[in-house]
Write a structure and sequence with these properties.
Low-confidence stretches of chain A: none
Distance between the termini of chain A: 37 Å
Mean pLDDT of chain B: 95
Distance between the termini of chain B: 36 Å
Number of helices of chain B: 0
Largest sheet of chain B: 7 strands, mixed
Order of helices and strands of chain B: EEEEEEEEEEE
Oligomer: heterodimer
Number of strands of chain B: 11
């Protein structure tokens, strides 16, 4: 089983739609969780951190479920500019190991 | 401007010819890391460094070396590159390894 798993997609959604991605992780000792966004052939950039209580940033909502070991990202009112690959990142352990998921590709269609 | 820089951005080389990819950050970050990104495999950590003179292996360290003699620089060294090291490489840094990582623009390496 992979340490961090994501559905690769692609998710093709119309503008204005709501879309959700999940990411599961295998290490129950993981401590920090993030969503990054990566545009084609560019460097990843932080979208948002994920907190136990859940957090929201504009149209984006992130949730963490430690019991089931998954994190989620919800995008409301999708824009064309949201088209990108979304990477789930899990970090934990005393030696600062960072694990990226393979990413979920989102394509927002006019 | 706060940034992570990598050089070169593109490199085509031949098997066995030693090369170095430089990485530099101007944010006084303690933590730096190298990743390679391959289709279907995502980003995999090669090496990371918690501070000057402190480096540790990530998931795929074989065939790579790093050094951290200064806080701002974290070069990646391929002593004898092989075709299976053809990949897109990213350097990243963060303040203390806990929060956001800032990535360089990437280095696309082709080994023939």
């Amino acid at each position: 089983r992979k340490e961090v798993e994501q559905d690769p997609g692609p998710f093709n959604v119309p503008e204005g739609a709501t879309v959700a991605f999940n990411c599961t992780y295998s290490n129950s000792a993981s401590q920090s969780f993030f969503w990054y966004r990566q545009d084609c052939r560019k460097e990843p950039k932080l979208l948002m951190s994920v907190y136990s209580s859940g957090n929201e940033d504009g149209r984006f909502t992130a949730q963490l479920n430690r019991a089931s070991q998954y994190i989620s990202l919800l995008i409301r009112d999708s824009k064309l500019s949201d088209s990108a690959t979304y990477l789930c990142v899990v970090k934990g352990g005393g030696y600062q190991k960072v694990t990226f998921g393979t990413g979920t590709k989102l394509q927002v269609i006019p | 401007e706060a940034q992570v820089t990598q050089n070169p951005r593109y490199l085509i080389t031949v098997t066995g010819k030693k090369l170095t990819v430089t990485c530099s950050q101007n944010m006084n970050h303690e933590y730096m890391s190298w990743y390679r990104q391959d289709p279907g495999l995502g980003l995999r950590q090669i090496y990371y460094s918690m501070n000057v003179e402190v480096t540790d292996k990530g998931d795929v360290p074989e065939g790579y070396k790093v050094s951290r003699k200064e806080k701002r620089n974290f070069p990646l060294i391929l002593e004898s590159p092989s075709p299976n090291q053809t990949s897109l490489y990213f350097c990243a840094s963060s303040l203390n390894g806990e929060g956001e990582q800032y990535f360089g623009p990437g280095t696309r390496l082709t080994v023939t």
